[in-house]
Amino acid sequence: MKQFSFKPITKKDVPLLLKWFKEPHVIKWWPTPKEDEDFFAHFLKRIRSKDTFAYLVLLDNEPIGYIQYYLIDKQKNPWLPELPEKIVGTDQFIGRPELIGKGLGPEFIKEFIESILFTKEIDAVIVDPEPKNKAAIRCYEKIGFKLLGEFQAPWGPAQVMIYQK
């Protein structure tokens, strides 16, 4: 049986993240700073944020991906539809290309969101994949996310989906 765990990102994890963010399958869907220094500063800011909680995804204690959850500030995100009060967003990816398409994504995402739903007093989790990212949308549907609709986010179209207790 696969054993997933989630380790909070630290400064020493940033070189591995930089490597993953340069992978073609990640670049396709994630905005990545062009310079290594910008990337380092970007992640230092994120891991010190009071609103974003970033983790390495470990499979049998080996890092395989990245996952984060963040508090939704409805004032700063007026493009979002009506949402439950206690809600967070999540983003994630598998960093190691050889593990893409093996069914790991739905497993670790569900385990992660179930843990935050039950330990953080959160009622729901949203994701907002690019509508053309059919693999991500299928992954979220397998987990039990329901479509709220397509909305225009500041970075482009977003397929907003929700997972509730």
Helix-and-strand structural type: alpha+beta
Strand order of the largest sheet: 1-2-3-4-5-7-6
**Named CATH topology:** Aminopeptidase
Under the CATH scheme, which class?
Alpha Beta
- Put simply, the count of helices is 5
Q: From N to C, what is the helix and strand string?
A: EHHHEEEHEHEE
Q: What is the annotated CATH architecture? A: 3-Layer(aba) Sandwich
Terminus-to-terminus distance = 25 Å
Domain count = 1
Q: How many E-type strands?
A: 7
Which parts are unreliable, with pLDDT below 50 for 5 consecutive residues or more? none
Helix content: 25-40%
Strand proportion, as a percent range, falls in 25-35%
The biggest beta sheet is recorded as: 7 strands, mixed
Name a few traits of the molecule:
7 strands, about 30% helix, globular, Aminopeptidase, single chain, about 160 residues
Note down, in words, how this protein is organized.
- The structure is a single chain.
- With 165 residues, this protein is α+β, with helices and mostly antiparallel strands.
- The chain has a single domain, classed as Gcn5-related N-acetyltransferase (GNAT) (Aminopeptidase).
- It is built from 5 helices and 7 strands.
- A 7-stranded mixed beta sheet has the order 1-2-3-4-5-7-6, with helices on one face.
- A hairpin with a 2-residue loop joins strand 2 and strand 3.
- Helix 4 packs across helix 5.
- The chain starts with a strand and ends with a strand.
